[in-house]
Predict the 3D structure of the following.
Amino acid sequence: MSFEKLGVMKPLLGAINDLGYKKPTIIQTRAIPLVLGKSDIFATAQTGTGKTAAFGLPMIQRLRKNEKDSSRPIRGMILSPTRELSMQIFEDMQNFAKYMDVKIALLVGGKDLESQQKILKEGVDIVIATPGRMLEHAESGVSLKGVEIFVLDEADRMLDMGFVKEIRKIHPILPKKHQSLLFSATYSEKVRKLSKLLLRSPAFIETAKKNTTVDTINQKVYLVDKERKAELLAYIIGSRNFRQVLVFTRTKASADELVIELKKDGLKCGIIHGDKTQANRSKTLMQFKEEKIKVLVATDIASRGLDIEHLPYVINYELPSIPEDYVHRVGRTGRAGRNGEAISLIDIYEKYDIKEIEKLIGIKIPQESVKGFEPDPTIRRKDVQDIKLKSEHAKTKKKFTKAKESKKVTAKSLKKAKNSESQRTGKKRRTTKRDGN
Ligand code: AMP
């Protein structure tokens, strides 16, 4: 299949040729004709599969300026969860539209609202925005009445980040008749519900098994004691001479601490997390892309928008608290069919988390230890009981949700589920006479 056969017009073909896209990816092959045909779409696509062009190319084609039309209302709106991802989409869209008369604007927080308003007044065809900033503009009078195509990218992440309120406020402002495209890296009940609200008779595109990691990524787990993780990380980077590596921590505090440790080892590091200003994040990302810094330490919030060409390594210094985030993190490597390696450094407290991740992605990740960094076998976890309870609680919750979904929850079954959980957790109900007999 070629982009031309999918119906992509000449100026766009020229632009993607400049970008080196030779053949459409699977998601592009499936989505482009549907978007051109004005269909709503619900697509679950893994990160790095080329989904920006899957919606971006046909969107630009459909919304190119009509010569007869003198006004320039916003006709396309792309919402994405983070500033970094929005910036990445903006860059891609500008590259796609470079031979066409399509005006594109980036509306993200952390940037001056007034200068964005000025750009909008001059007339813009497509906006790429974070939900909060888009709502601010809409509330300050920017009209969305002309929107023909609405894209919600990384819908699962939007929900995780609590943007559902903003989406629910923006959606009714859009004209009744418009095309909606929903993209999500992972599939969940919450995403399904959101799709019901936003989409009308959508075409479903599933380019990969739910929640799988790309198979060009070589995944590994190194077992190590918590207090030796920074040392091991520096050793791996140094001994294998990593040129560029993205390292994830679970919290901002551990990202800060890790950077201090790595700098002591003489490694050039940058850091991206929610407490950093937008200007600082952009500068760090640029330095990393230009390989002026070797190690970029980031938290999950920052992970979504990072598209670095040929990023060869991702290291999970700590596993994410939500298993789905593992898929997003490792998806930063192995993009567009290239090989990548994802290494997770796990201590004794993360053994439960890795099992949850393996369950989600449906593969067992090989575990080993690095010579000289083997975990101390005398170290035992102090919270074995807590972990058992966590696992039991998750099982009960799952059972209950399943029953609820199939609408079979009765007062009796609810009581039974609660009882069995309290028995497991040791908080046995006091036996009443009737219970006892
Ligand atoms: P995305 O999933 O949109 O973030 O794209 C992931 C990466 O794949 C980006 O670096 C794109 O520039 C690249 N890409 C997208 N489509 C193609 C294609 N058809 N051929 C080669 N690279 C592509």
